[in-house]
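Is magnesium ion placement plausible here? Inputs below.
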Amino acid sequence: MAAPATASNPLMHPVRDLVGRLHCPSCWHALRPADALFIAEDPRLLGDPVAGADEALRFLPSRFDLTGAALDPEGARCTRLACPRCRREIPRSMLELPATIVSVVGAPGAGKSHLLASAIWSMRRDADRLGLQVIDAEPRLHARLHAWENRLFGSAEGPRRLEKTETSGGQGYASVRIEGRTEVVPAPFVFTLRRAAETTPATSLVLYDNAGEHFLPGADDALRPVTRHLGRSEAIVFVLDPTQDPGFRAAVGLPPSTQPPVRQDLVLSEMAARIRHHRGRRTDERLDVPLVIAMAKADLWAATAHVSMLSDPFAVGGDPVAALRPGHQACLALARRGSPEFVAAFESAFERVLLVPCSGLGRDAAPPEGPVTPRWAAVPFVAACEFGEGGRLGSFKP
Ligand SMILES: Nc1nc2c(ncn2[C@@H]2O[C@H](COP(=O)(O)OP(=O)(O)OP(=O)(O)O)[C@@H](O)[C@H]2O)c(=O)[nH]1
Ligand SMILES: [Mg+2]
Ligand SMILES: [Zn+2]
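Reply from A.M.:
I modeled the complex. C-alpha coordinates:
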Protein backbone atom coordinates (compact mmCIF):
# COMPACT_ATOMS: atom_id res chain seq x y z
CA MET A 1 0.00 0.00 0.00
CA ALA A 2 1.26 3.48 -0.83
CA ALA A 3 2.19 5.74 2.07
CA PRO A 4 2.05 9.52 1.61
CA ALA A 5 5.32 11.46 1.34
CA THR A 6 5.48 12.81 4.84
CA ALA A 7 8.35 13.93 7.01
CA SER A 8 8.11 10.56 8.79
CA ASN A 9 9.04 8.77 5.59
CA PRO A 10 12.32 6.87 6.04
CA LEU A 11 13.68 8.52 2.89
CA MET A 12 13.32 11.93 4.44
CA HIS A 13 14.94 10.78 7.69
CA PRO A 14 17.49 8.32 6.43
CA VAL A 15 18.95 5.83 8.84
CA ARG A 16 22.26 6.25 7.01
CA ASP A 17 23.74 9.72 6.90
CA LEU A 18 23.73 11.31 3.48
CA VAL A 19 26.33 13.73 2.14
CA GLY A 20 25.15 17.33 2.36
CA ARG A 21 25.86 18.12 -1.28
CA LEU A 22 27.35 16.25 -4.21
CA HIS A 23 28.21 16.76 -7.85
CA CYS A 24 26.66 14.67 -10.58
CA PRO A 25 29.55 12.52 -11.92
CA SER A 26 28.32 13.03 -15.49
CA CYS A 27 27.44 16.74 -15.88
CA TRP A 28 28.90 18.27 -12.64
CA HIS A 29 25.62 19.79 -11.57
CA ALA A 30 25.69 20.42 -7.80
CA LEU A 31 22.77 18.88 -5.96
CA ARG A 32 21.51 17.90 -2.56
CA PRO A 33 20.48 14.25 -2.14
CA ALA A 34 16.85 15.36 -1.79
CA ASP A 35 17.01 16.91 -5.31
CA ALA A 36 17.76 13.56 -6.98
CA LEU A 37 15.10 12.17 -9.30
CA PHE A 38 14.03 8.53 -9.22
CA ILE A 39 14.19 6.19 -12.22
CA ALA A 40 10.91 4.45 -13.06
CA GLU A 41 10.93 0.64 -13.02
CA ASP A 42 7.60 -0.10 -14.68
CA PRO A 43 8.36 -1.17 -18.26
CA ARG A 44 5.50 0.97 -19.58
CA LEU A 45 7.30 4.13 -18.45
CA LEU A 46 9.96 4.02 -21.16
CA GLY A 47 11.27 7.31 -22.58
CA ASP A 48 12.54 10.40 -20.83
CA PRO A 49 12.68 13.85 -22.47
CA VAL A 50 16.26 14.48 -21.29
CA ALA A 51 17.83 11.02 -20.84
CA GLY A 52 16.47 9.73 -24.16
CA ALA A 53 13.79 7.53 -25.72
CA ASP A 54 15.48 4.28 -24.63
CA GLU A 55 15.78 5.33 -20.99
CA ALA A 56 13.16 4.90 -18.28
CA LEU A 57 11.26 7.96 -17.12
CA ARG A 58 12.93 10.03 -14.38
CA PHE A 59 10.52 11.54 -11.85
CA LEU A 60 10.24 13.36 -8.54
CA PRO A 61 8.35 10.94 -6.28
CA SER A 62 5.25 11.82 -4.35
CA ARG A 63 4.39 8.28 -3.16
CA PHE A 64 6.52 5.83 -1.21
CA ASP A 65 6.04 2.32 0.13
CA LEU A 66 6.51 1.43 3.77
CA THR A 67 10.24 0.72 3.32
CA GLY A 68 10.79 4.23 1.97
CA ALA A 69 11.24 3.21 -1.68
CA ALA A 70 9.62 5.59 -4.16
CA LEU A 71 6.68 4.41 -6.26
CA ASP A 72 6.61 5.37 -9.91
CA PRO A 73 3.38 6.62 -11.56
CA GLU A 74 2.46 2.98 -12.34
CA GLY A 75 3.09 1.89 -8.75
CA ALA A 76 6.41 0.04 -9.25
CA ARG A 77 9.01 0.21 -6.47
CA CYS A 78 12.00 2.40 -7.46
CA THR A 79 15.37 2.83 -5.79
CA ARG A 80 17.63 4.00 -8.62
CA LEU A 81 18.46 7.71 -8.60
CA ALA A 82 19.26 10.22 -11.32
CA CYS A 83 20.69 13.71 -11.67
CA PRO A 84 17.98 16.38 -11.97
CA ARG A 85 19.94 18.12 -14.77
CA CYS A 86 21.35 15.47 -17.15
CA ARG A 87 19.19 12.67 -15.71
CA ARG A 88 22.00 10.13 -15.88
CA GLU A 89 21.91 7.55 -13.11
CA ILE A 90 23.88 8.42 -9.98
CA PRO A 91 24.97 5.38 -7.93
CA ARG A 92 23.43 5.51 -4.49
CA SER A 93 26.82 5.34 -2.80
CA MET A 94 27.55 8.83 -4.12
CA LEU A 95 24.71 10.17 -1.98
CA GLU A 96 25.97 8.33 1.06
CA LEU A 97 29.75 8.70 0.87
CA PRO A 98 31.94 11.66 -0.13
CA ALA A 99 33.52 11.18 -3.55
CA THR A 100 37.20 10.82 -4.40
CA ILE A 101 37.51 11.61 -8.10
CA VAL A 102 40.56 10.37 -9.98
CA SER A 103 41.02 11.46 -13.62
CA VAL A 104 42.96 9.17 -15.96
CA VAL A 105 44.70 11.28 -18.60
CA GLY A 106 47.09 10.51 -21.46
CA ALA A 107 47.73 10.71 -25.19
CA PRO A 108 45.90 8.40 -27.63
CA GLY A 109 47.31 4.89 -27.38
CA ALA A 110 49.29 5.62 -24.18
CA GLY A 111 47.81 2.51 -22.54
CA LYS A 112 45.14 4.11 -20.29
CA SER A 113 42.39 1.54 -20.85
CA HIS A 114 44.65 -1.50 -20.46
CA LEU A 115 46.18 -0.02 -17.32
CA LEU A 116 42.81 0.88 -15.80
CA ALA A 117 41.32 -2.56 -16.50
CA SER A 118 44.40 -4.31 -15.07
CA ALA A 119 44.46 -1.98 -12.06
CA ILE A 120 40.84 -2.65 -11.14
CA TRP A 121 41.34 -6.38 -11.66
CA SER A 122 44.41 -6.31 -9.39
CA MET A 123 42.63 -4.21 -6.78
CA ARG A 124 39.72 -6.67 -6.71
CA ARG A 125 42.05 -9.63 -6.18
CA ASP A 126 44.72 -8.09 -3.97
CA ALA A 127 42.71 -5.87 -1.64
CA ASP A 128 44.51 -7.15 1.46
CA ARG A 129 47.95 -6.77 -0.06
CA LEU A 130 47.22 -3.25 -1.34
CA GLY A 131 45.39 -2.20 1.82
CA LEU A 132 42.49 -0.89 -0.27
CA GLN A 133 39.32 -2.58 -1.43
CA VAL A 134 37.17 -1.47 -4.36
CA ILE A 135 33.63 -2.76 -4.97
CA ASP A 136 31.45 -1.71 -7.93
CA ALA A 137 28.86 0.75 -6.63
CA GLU A 138 26.34 -0.34 -9.32
CA PRO A 139 27.67 -3.35 -11.23
CA ARG A 140 24.97 -2.74 -13.86
CA LEU A 141 26.70 0.51 -14.88
CA HIS A 142 30.10 -1.18 -15.34
CA ALA A 143 29.32 -3.53 -18.23
CA ARG A 144 32.12 -1.90 -20.25
CA LEU A 145 34.70 -2.44 -17.50
CA HIS A 146 33.59 -6.03 -16.86
CA ALA A 147 33.92 -6.80 -20.59
CA TRP A 148 37.50 -5.43 -20.53
CA GLU A 149 38.44 -7.47 -17.49
CA ASN A 150 36.90 -10.55 -19.06
CA ARG A 151 38.78 -9.97 -22.28
CA LEU A 152 42.16 -9.54 -20.59
CA PHE A 153 41.85 -12.03 -17.72
CA GLY A 154 38.71 -14.11 -18.17
CA SER A 155 37.24 -16.52 -20.65
CA ALA A 156 36.20 -14.08 -23.40
CA GLU A 157 37.08 -15.43 -26.82
CA GLY A 158 39.51 -13.60 -29.07
CA PRO A 159 42.77 -11.71 -28.56
CA ARG A 160 43.67 -10.51 -25.06
CA ARG A 161 43.71 -6.82 -25.89
CA LEU A 162 41.24 -3.94 -25.76
CA GLU A 163 39.88 -1.76 -28.50
CA LYS A 164 40.79 1.88 -28.72
CA THR A 165 38.42 4.00 -26.61
CA GLU A 166 35.76 5.67 -28.76
CA THR A 167 35.79 9.46 -28.94
CA SER A 168 31.96 9.54 -28.84
CA GLY A 169 29.05 7.10 -28.73
CA GLY A 170 29.53 3.60 -27.34
CA GLN A 171 29.13 2.85 -23.65
CA GLY A 172 31.62 5.48 -22.54
CA TYR A 173 29.40 8.48 -23.21
CA ALA A 174 25.73 9.42 -23.20
CA SER A 175 23.88 12.04 -25.24
CA VAL A 176 21.31 14.00 -23.28
CA ARG A 177 18.94 16.82 -24.34
CA ILE A 178 19.30 19.78 -22.00
CA GLU A 179 17.31 22.93 -22.72
CA GLY A 180 16.87 22.03 -26.36
CA ARG A 181 20.50 21.18 -27.12
CA THR A 182 22.36 17.90 -27.13
CA GLU A 183 25.19 17.50 -24.62
CA VAL A 184 27.58 14.53 -24.56
CA VAL A 185 28.52 13.50 -21.03
CA PRO A 186 31.03 10.85 -19.93
CA ALA A 187 30.05 7.63 -18.15
CA PRO A 188 32.07 7.33 -14.93
CA PHE A 189 33.15 4.18 -13.11
CA VAL A 190 32.03 4.43 -9.48
CA PHE A 191 33.29 2.17 -6.67
CA THR A 192 33.00 2.15 -2.94
CA LEU A 193 36.46 2.36 -1.44
CA ARG A 194 37.44 0.80 1.88
CA ARG A 195 40.85 1.21 3.43
CA ALA A 196 42.46 -1.54 5.53
CA ALA A 197 41.89 0.35 8.78
CA GLU A 198 38.18 0.87 8.10
CA THR A 199 35.36 -1.61 8.68
CA THR A 200 32.99 -0.06 6.12
CA PRO A 201 33.67 1.94 2.94
CA ALA A 202 34.29 5.61 3.67
CA THR A 203 34.39 7.07 0.14
CA SER A 204 33.11 6.60 -3.37
CA LEU A 205 35.94 6.33 -5.89
CA VAL A 206 35.01 7.85 -9.26
CA LEU A 207 37.21 7.12 -12.28
CA TYR A 208 37.02 8.22 -15.90
CA ASP A 209 38.58 6.67 -18.98
CA ASN A 210 38.50 9.12 -21.88
CA ALA A 211 39.80 8.65 -25.39
CA GLY A 212 43.23 10.29 -25.60
CA GLU A 213 41.93 12.61 -28.34
CA HIS A 214 39.82 14.40 -25.71
CA PHE A 215 42.99 15.67 -24.06
CA LEU A 216 44.35 17.29 -27.20
CA PRO A 217 44.01 21.07 -27.34
CA GLY A 218 40.50 22.24 -28.29
CA ALA A 219 38.76 18.87 -27.82
CA ASP A 220 36.58 19.72 -24.80
CA ASP A 221 33.80 22.28 -25.08
CA ALA A 222 30.49 23.21 -23.49
CA LEU A 223 28.53 20.70 -25.58
CA ARG A 224 31.00 17.88 -24.94
CA PRO A 225 32.24 18.45 -21.40
CA VAL A 226 33.92 15.04 -21.41
CA THR A 227 37.03 16.05 -19.48
CA ARG A 228 35.43 18.46 -17.04
CA HIS A 229 36.19 15.94 -14.25
CA LEU A 230 39.63 17.60 -14.30
CA GLY A 231 38.03 20.53 -12.51
CA ARG A 232 37.04 18.36 -9.56
CA SER A 233 39.50 15.49 -9.29
CA GLU A 234 41.33 14.86 -6.02
CA ALA A 235 44.24 13.30 -7.94
CA ILE A 236 45.31 12.71 -11.54
CA VAL A 237 46.85 9.60 -13.03
CA PHE A 238 48.69 10.77 -16.15
CA VAL A 239 49.59 7.76 -18.28
CA LEU A 240 52.85 8.51 -20.08
CA ASP A 241 53.90 6.14 -22.85
CA PRO A 242 57.69 6.43 -23.12
CA THR A 243 57.63 4.28 -26.25
CA GLN A 244 55.78 7.04 -28.17
CA ASP A 245 58.57 9.54 -27.54
CA PRO A 246 61.76 9.49 -29.67
CA GLY A 247 63.89 10.88 -26.79
CA PHE A 248 62.69 8.23 -24.31
CA ARG A 249 63.18 5.50 -26.90
CA ALA A 250 66.76 6.58 -27.44
CA ALA A 251 67.33 6.82 -23.67
CA VAL A 252 66.24 3.19 -23.11
CA GLY A 253 67.88 1.84 -26.25
CA LEU A 254 64.74 1.15 -28.27
CA PRO A 255 65.01 1.57 -32.07
CA PRO A 256 63.28 4.64 -33.59
CA SER A 257 59.52 4.12 -34.06
CA THR A 258 57.82 4.14 -37.44
CA GLN A 259 54.78 5.88 -35.86
CA PRO A 260 54.59 9.70 -35.80
CA PRO A 261 55.71 10.91 -32.33
CA VAL A 262 53.14 12.34 -29.93
CA ARG A 263 54.01 15.48 -27.94
CA GLN A 264 52.99 14.17 -24.52
CA ASP A 265 54.43 17.29 -22.87
CA LEU A 266 51.77 19.28 -24.71
CA VAL A 267 49.04 16.88 -23.58
CA LEU A 268 50.20 17.47 -20.00
CA SER A 269 50.32 21.26 -20.45
CA GLU A 270 46.84 21.25 -21.99
CA MET A 271 45.60 19.22 -19.02
CA ALA A 272 47.13 21.72 -16.58
CA ALA A 273 45.51 24.59 -18.50
CA ARG A 274 42.10 22.93 -18.25
CA ILE A 275 42.51 22.27 -14.54
CA ARG A 276 43.38 25.95 -14.02
CA HIS A 277 40.47 27.05 -16.18
CA HIS A 278 37.89 24.91 -14.35
CA ARG A 279 39.26 25.75 -10.88
CA GLY A 280 39.85 29.45 -11.57
CA ARG A 281 43.60 29.25 -10.82
CA ARG A 282 46.26 31.70 -11.98
CA THR A 283 48.65 30.61 -14.71
CA ASP A 284 51.71 31.32 -12.57
CA GLU A 285 50.43 29.17 -9.70
CA ARG A 286 51.58 25.55 -9.33
CA LEU A 287 48.62 23.23 -8.90
CA ASP A 288 48.19 21.47 -5.57
CA VAL A 289 46.27 18.50 -7.01
CA PRO A 290 48.58 15.47 -6.72
CA LEU A 291 49.84 14.14 -10.04
CA VAL A 292 50.81 10.48 -10.41
CA ILE A 293 52.66 9.88 -13.66
CA ALA A 294 52.16 6.24 -14.62
CA MET A 295 55.15 5.40 -16.82
CA ALA A 296 53.36 2.77 -18.91
CA LYS A 297 54.48 -0.25 -20.93
CA ALA A 298 57.42 -0.76 -18.57
CA ASP A 299 57.73 -4.33 -19.88
CA LEU A 300 59.44 -2.72 -22.90
CA TRP A 301 61.91 -0.46 -21.10
CA ALA A 302 62.21 -1.18 -17.35
CA ALA A 303 65.19 -3.55 -17.63
CA THR A 304 67.39 -1.15 -19.58
CA ALA A 305 66.33 1.78 -17.38
CA HIS A 306 67.22 -0.28 -14.25
CA VAL A 307 63.72 0.05 -12.84
CA SER A 308 62.42 -2.77 -10.67
CA MET A 309 58.78 -3.62 -10.00
CA LEU A 310 59.43 -6.71 -7.89
CA SER A 311 58.70 -5.29 -4.43
CA ASP A 312 55.25 -4.64 -3.01
CA PRO A 313 55.10 -0.90 -2.32
CA PHE A 314 51.87 -1.00 -0.32
CA ALA A 315 52.64 -4.16 1.68
CA VAL A 316 51.01 -4.07 5.10
CA GLY A 317 53.40 -2.72 7.72
CA GLY A 318 55.77 -1.38 5.06
CA ASP A 319 56.66 2.19 4.26
CA PRO A 320 55.16 3.00 0.85
CA VAL A 321 57.03 6.30 0.56
CA ALA A 322 60.38 4.50 0.94
CA ALA A 323 59.24 1.70 -1.37
CA LEU A 324 58.14 4.03 -4.15
CA ARG A 325 61.09 6.41 -4.02
CA PRO A 326 63.68 4.32 -5.97
CA GLY A 327 61.24 3.81 -8.87
CA HIS A 328 60.32 7.49 -8.79
CA GLN A 329 63.95 8.55 -8.90
CA ALA A 330 64.88 6.09 -11.66
CA CYS A 331 61.90 7.24 -13.78
CA LEU A 332 62.74 10.88 -13.14
CA ALA A 333 66.36 10.36 -14.19
CA LEU A 334 65.14 8.59 -17.33
CA ALA A 335 62.66 11.40 -18.07
CA ARG A 336 65.36 14.05 -17.62
CA ARG A 337 67.56 12.22 -20.13
CA GLY A 338 64.83 11.27 -22.60
CA SER A 339 62.34 14.13 -22.48
CA PRO A 340 63.47 17.19 -20.52
CA GLU A 341 60.55 19.11 -22.07
CA PHE A 342 58.11 16.71 -20.38
CA VAL A 343 59.86 17.15 -17.00
CA ALA A 344 59.72 20.93 -17.43
CA ALA A 345 55.99 20.71 -18.24
CA PHE A 346 55.06 18.82 -15.06
CA GLU A 347 57.53 20.54 -12.74
CA SER A 348 56.29 23.99 -13.72
CA ALA A 349 52.60 23.09 -13.33
CA PHE A 350 52.37 20.71 -10.33
CA GLU A 351 53.58 20.86 -6.76
CA ARG A 352 53.40 17.16 -5.92
CA VAL A 353 54.40 14.63 -8.56
CA LEU A 354 55.09 10.91 -8.17
CA LEU A 355 56.44 8.84 -11.06
CA VAL A 356 55.51 5.16 -11.03
CA PRO A 357 56.73 2.54 -13.53
CA CYS A 358 53.95 0.13 -14.51
CA SER A 359 52.68 -2.21 -17.19
CA GLY A 360 49.02 -3.02 -17.77
CA LEU A 361 49.79 -6.05 -19.93
CA GLY A 362 53.11 -7.10 -18.43
CA ARG A 363 54.27 -8.12 -21.88
CA ASP A 364 54.34 -6.85 -25.44
CA ALA A 365 50.92 -6.55 -27.10
CA ALA A 366 51.98 -9.00 -29.83
CA PRO A 367 51.27 -11.93 -29.78
CA PRO A 368 47.78 -11.24 -28.39
CA GLU A 369 47.09 -14.78 -27.08
CA GLY A 370 49.50 -15.06 -24.14
CA PRO A 371 48.50 -14.49 -20.52
CA VAL A 372 48.29 -10.93 -19.24
CA THR A 373 50.54 -10.40 -16.22
CA PRO A 374 50.22 -6.79 -15.02
CA ARG A 375 53.18 -5.24 -13.21
CA TRP A 376 52.38 -2.54 -10.65
CA ALA A 377 49.19 -1.71 -12.61
CA ALA A 378 47.27 -0.84 -9.46
CA VAL A 379 50.12 1.13 -7.89
CA PRO A 380 49.42 4.51 -9.61
CA PHE A 381 45.75 4.27 -8.63
CA VAL A 382 46.37 3.24 -5.03
CA ALA A 383 48.93 6.06 -4.84
CA ALA A 384 46.35 8.53 -6.20
CA CYS A 385 43.89 7.45 -3.50
CA GLU A 386 46.54 7.70 -0.76
CA PHE A 387 47.76 11.21 -1.53
CA GLY A 388 44.97 12.92 0.38
CA GLU A 389 44.97 14.07 3.98
CA GLY A 390 45.70 11.13 6.29
CA GLY A 391 46.57 8.90 3.30
CA ARG A 392 49.62 6.66 3.31
CA LEU A 393 51.42 9.04 0.88
CA GLY A 394 50.17 12.17 2.59
CA SER A 395 53.73 13.12 3.50
CA PHE A 396 55.31 12.30 0.14
CA LYS A 397 57.54 15.08 -1.13
CA PRO A 398 59.63 14.09 -4.13
N1 LIG B 1 53.95 -3.51 -24.41
C1 LIG B 1 52.83 -3.07 -23.89
N2 LIG B 1 51.85 -2.59 -24.70
C2 LIG B 1 50.72 -2.12 -24.13
C3 LIG B 1 50.53 -2.12 -22.72
N3 LIG B 1 49.32 -1.57 -22.45
C4 LIG B 1 48.78 -1.25 -23.63
N4 LIG B 1 49.60 -1.59 -24.66
C5 LIG B 1 49.34 -1.40 -26.08
O1 LIG B 1 49.17 -0.02 -26.32
C6 LIG B 1 48.10 0.21 -27.22
C7 LIG B 1 47.15 1.25 -26.67
O2 LIG B 1 46.60 0.82 -25.43
P1 LIG B 1 45.24 1.42 -24.86
O3 LIG B 1 45.09 0.94 -23.46
O4 LIG B 1 44.11 1.18 -25.79
O5 LIG B 1 45.59 2.97 -24.87
P2 LIG B 1 44.63 4.20 -24.49
O6 LIG B 1 45.51 5.17 -23.80
O7 LIG B 1 43.43 3.73 -23.78
O8 LIG B 1 44.28 4.76 -25.92
P3 LIG B 1 42.98 5.63 -26.38
O9 LIG B 1 41.80 4.86 -25.95
O10 LIG B 1 43.18 5.72 -27.85
O11 LIG B 1 43.11 6.96 -25.74
C8 LIG B 1 47.45 -1.14 -27.46
O12 LIG B 1 47.81 -1.58 -28.72
C9 LIG B 1 48.01 -2.05 -26.42
O13 LIG B 1 48.19 -3.35 -26.89
C10 LIG B 1 51.58 -2.65 -21.90
O14 LIG B 1 51.49 -2.72 -20.66
N5 LIG B 1 52.69 -3.11 -22.54
MG1 LIG C 1 41.46 3.88 -24.16
ZN1 LIG D 1 24.06 15.38 -14.25
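Short version: The chain has two domains: 3-86, 97-386.
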